[in-house]
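ok posting inputs for the 6-hydroxyuridine-5'-phosphate job
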Amino acid sequence: MKKERRLILALDVTSRERALALADMLRGHFDAIKIGYPLILSAGLEVVKEISDHAPVIADLKIADIPNTNRLICEAVLRAGARGIIAHAFPGKDALLACADSAAESGAELYVVTEMSHPGALQFMAPLAEELARLAVDVNASGVVAPATRPERIRQIRSIIGSRTIISPGVGVQGGSALQALEAGSDYLIVGRSITDAKDPLAAADAILAQIS
Ligand code: BMP
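and the output
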């Protein structure tokens, strides 16, 4: 992923046609497009390749299984054309290493979830987030996912992961501020509904770009 716009589009729509139309309309506004279960389960795995024609795809499958299953999931989605994958660290080092190895074999990026952006993440994830970030460093992940809704946590996680990449969801609909997340040390903002559900997605994307540039 080339750091130009500092924006990643979360394309959580369930229609292949709508997804492709948005990817086309918003071409050049994002450094990558993140797609996950909503689109892949609705449109099929081939949609990874189709979206890749517009921007590098990060497959957000939040992989969280035993090492062998993790490897099979990673290989399937990387073979389909994903350039990045997102995995959970809580299943432990061996499970996360399976993802790291698969990503490395494909020259793809691995992002590890630390603390999620929604309120419920405070229940189980927040107390473990720093250990999860350390595990991301241990397996040599490209970066981590850290919440734009809690910029102070981005700052803390940055102090653990050094120069690795931080990608941050939670801007807009979830209440996070784009500027505050970047100021706290995030490299890329992940933005979905504020753009995809807007009457004019192009204008909404331009407005965020203007705000952060
Ligand atoms: P939205 O901007 O519409 O809230 O979308 C945020 C995107 O980031 C969604 O795809 C969601 O699954 C993802 N995400 C998140 O919101 N918080 C996290 O902690 C991790 C995520 O991947």
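notes: The mean pLDDT is 98. Residues 10, 12, 36, 60, 116-117, 145, 147, 169-170, 172-174, 190-194 surround 6-hydroxyuridine-5'-phosphate (CB under 6 Å).
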